């Protein structure tokens, strides 16, 4: 595995797209948005807020921006996400369409389920079990091998950042030598909002790259996602167009890489910050699933998503006009005090209740079984191989080791120490 920061030197000179993307998402700036969300919840389940407020910005933003309806309580978030007829996902076409192509994320029913069904099997729990043995475990072990003898590491840079992209790249069938470029292009792609040229260039590079791989798999299918997509047929017996395949793969890159890297970093931050809970999990691995769900609830990696009202409607007693731009705040829903006692605390022993980190309804995360399997394997490997794992006491309170960000949230670094090699 190569370091993505060393990839594709042609675009490297001006700036680092990883740093730029993190900055644009408020990384390092928005430390704790939860008090603001609590204040909103105390006012109403749905509120009209300014774009700047939604982005956690304390400055006015340039240009004409629409007001946004922020949906902030658990019940209201659940109602909006379940009802794809009243609340459309088509707004993603404008936001992401130019760089991704037409993806399932922007489709409404019935088109959405025709396409989602095609690929769902490849992400089922059973299929993921095979990927776990063949791909996830070896990828994680190889990364841990590189620092296990050292007794210290930055778990973000050396593990949680590179591993999910290596997994999704492996699942697609991308050879290891190309993983670093794939990761760079994936991050550049979703930077389109603030770096349009870079986003469009990355989209073309990914398309060209996928075209070559697709041609190879048509000649000689392998046991990978590219081969599944090359052979997939819609319910009327037609094959997917090449562009439809590329759009799906362009979506998987950031969907699979950005979120799991952040969710596993946040979970580790929670456990490392509560050594007695880490110890409990170390001694009883049956606690892992509930620890993972609590990590996702406590600090979900993707705080909010968007929808558009298709008609004049109402949620939680608040009227929404047709065409209203809706910010569905899953982070706020996950901290709703009417559902979770002491919601800002990380507590793996709290009563388990369905959280919203993977969203809900028709667009509920397709990769959730994969994300969970990756995190179980990651945690088991760390607990097996790094005895005495703890935050480096000298850097534990540094700003970079705190979870920050408004739309995407995670720590920039996880400096840790551990005892001896295993
Ligand atoms: C902890 C990690 C993850 C989180 C928190 C997460 C979160 C989400 C959320 C909130 C959505 C709904 C977006 C919307 O409706 O606007 C979503 C959709 C999706 N996710 Fe994930 N995701 C994660 C991991 C993954 C992984 C590993 C993959 C695959 C490699 C993936 C693939 C997808 C896809 C394809 C969709 C679109 C589903 C659809 O439109 O029907 N996700 N994810």
Taking pLDDT < 50 over at least 5 consecutive residues as the criterion, the unreliable ranges are 1-13
Question: Mind telling me the C-alpha Rg?
Answer: 21 Å
User: What distance lies between the first and last C-alpha atoms, to the nearest angstrom?
Assistant: 22 Å
- What kind of sheet is the major sheet? 5 strands, mixed
Number of domains: 1
Taken from the alpha-carbon principal axes, the silhouette is globular
Map the helices and strands.
Layout: H1 17-24, H2 34-43, E1 46-49, H3 51-54, E2 68-71, H4 74-82, E3 87-88, H5 91-100, H6 111-120, H7 125-145, E4 152-154, H8 155-160, H9 162-172, H10 179-189, H11 196-219, H12 225-231, H13 242-272, H14 275-283, H15 288-298, E5 304-309, E6 313-315, E7 318-320, E8 325-329, H16 330-333, H17 368-385, E9 390-391, E10 403-404, E11 410-411, E12 415-417
Parallel strand pairs: 2-8
Antiparallel strand pairs: 1-2, 3-5, 4-12, 5-8, 6-7, 9-12, 10-11
Helix pairs in contact: 7-9, 7-17, 9-13, 10-11, 10-13, 11-12, 11-13, 13-15, 13-17
Bound molecules: protoporphyrin IX containing FE.
Short description:
The protein is an alpha+beta fold.
Describe the structure.
With 422 residues, the chain is of the alpha+beta class. It contains 17 helices and twelve strands. It has helices at residues 17-24, 34-43, 51-54, 74-82, 91-100, 111-120, 125-145, 155-160, 162-172, 179-189, 196-219, 225-231, 242-272, 275-283, 288-298, 330-333, 368-385, and strands spanning 46-49, 68-71, 87-88, 152-154, 304-309, 313-315, 318-320, 325-329, 390-391, 403-404, 410-411, 415-417. Helix 10 (179-189) packs across helix 11 and helix 13 (242-272) packs across helix 15 (288-298). The longest helix has 31 residues, at 242-272. The protein is globular and about 60 Å long. The two termini are 22 Å apart. Residues 1-13 have low confidence and may be disordered.
